[in-house]
Amino acid sequence: DQQVKQNSPSLSVQEGRISILNCDYTNSMFDYFLWYKKYPAEGPTFLISISSIKDKNEDGRFTVFLNKSAKHLSLHIVPSQPGDSAVYFCAASANTGNQFYFGTGTSLTVIP
Amino acid sequence: SAVISQKPSRDICQRGTSLTIQCQVDSQVTMMFWYRQQPGQSLTLIATANQGSEATYESGFVIDKFPISRPNLTFSTLTVSNMSPEDSSIYLCSVGFGLHEQYFGPGTRLTVT
Asked: b/e per residue, A66-92, with b = 16+ CB within 10 A?
C-alpha cells in the first residue's frame, strides 16, 4: 500500500510563474517530510524538508507547506526557472528516521 | 554530505544471470541503504546494509535474490540474482547521516532481456 502519494505525474509551468507540487500521506506516524529533486541519469538530491512541528519551511525560491490535519504537503517554487525542470519526489519518515517512504514523483517542466 | 559513486551506471543483462552493483562513498558512514525504482514507481527500500553483519531486508525482498555485502564503512555491493525482466529497474544506494538525512548515488539502470 502506497503510504506517500503524488497524484500528479506531470506539471508544466511558464518560467517566472509559481510551481505547486502536491503530496499526500496516510501514516499519521510520519513526522518528517522531505522533497528530493532528480535529473535524468542522476540520483535524487535533497531539496528541502519540514518537521511536523512546523507548518512552513522556506529556503530561497522553495517553500514547503505542511497540513497535518489533511495529511498533505506541498512544494512551492517561485519564480520557476527552466533549470527547475526535473522529477520531484516527496518522502516521509517516522521518528526512527531510517526508513523513507517515497511518492511516485512529479515531473515538472518549466517552459521558457 | 557525501560523494557517492556507483558501478556500473547501466547494464543490459540476460535473463537468468546475476549482476553485482558497487557503491563507493568518499567518507565513512554508518548507514547505507539500497533502493529500487521500477518504471513509473516510487523508490522502494530493499535493505539496509550493515557493516560486519547481515543486511536487514524489507518486506518482499530476500537475501537469496538480493545478496548484499558491506565489508567496510565506505563500500557496499548489491547483487541481483537469477534476473528476470521484472528486475529491470534503477538501483540506488544511499547513505544516512543521523536522523532524516540521506544522500543518494547516481543509480544503476538495469535492463533484463
From this structure: beeeebebbbbbeebeeebbbbbbbbb
